[in-house]
Amino acid sequence: MLVAFFESIKYVGHLLPISFLRVFMGYYYLQQALNKFNGDFLTRPRIADQIAEWLPASHAPNWYKIFVSSQIIPHWQTVAFIIVGLEFAIAVSYIIGYVVRPIALLAVLLCFNMLFFSGPMNEDLFKTFLTIHLIMAWVGAGRCLGFDYYFFKRRRGIWW
After folding, report:
1. Which residue, 21, 79, 129, 131, has fewest beta-carbon neighbours within 10 Å?
2. How much is the pLDDT for 11?
């Protein structure tokens, strides 16, 4: 497996800049998840307040606004745990380069939700993250300097 890790540079070395971006994004998500886990994100209804404040001005479809106001705001603590868990999963996957494509698709869904949840200040940030996650899912960013190359070499498939 260690040989495949270094062999990945030889065969998919053109993905080296994207792998550095992948590791940086993994570090960013790990930092955000740790800040939320150690802070009061899981104990205080900050996300419910944020959603209730920005939802009427959001560009989300009406069915989504109804779903958020009836399901997500009352169950804010479950949603907060899901968000922190997804951020940890994204961070670990991006750092070690394992199952990057499915995790990048989950990250796209998380970015869409955060785009609708957050205000206009963070709109450009989440659009940029959305683009980065789509690129990582498209090119299979875990194949260079990651464990995905080992599995890509052994078992061809859509996930690697």
Report:
1. 131
2. 60
Q: What are the residue boundaries of the structural domains of the chain, listed by start?
A: 2-154
The residue assigned the tokens 């190359």 is 149
**What is the length of the chain?**
160
Tell me how far apart the alpha carbons of residues 77 and 85 are, in angstroms, rounded to a whole number: 12
Distance, CA of 114 to CA of 107 (rounded, Å): 10
pLDDT tens per residue, range 51-84: 888 888 888 889 988 998 899 889 999 999 999 9
Give Cα 88 to chain centroid, integer Å. 9
**How many angstroms separate the CA atoms of 137 and 99, rounded?**
10
Structural Rg of the chain based on CA atoms: 17
Mean residue pLDDT of the chain comes to: 83
pTM to 2 decimals?
0.82
Burial 97-111 (b: 16+ CB within 10 A, else e): bbbbbebbebbbebb
Q: Do 32 and 87 contact (CB within 8 A), yes or no?
A: yes
CA distance 44 to 74: 13
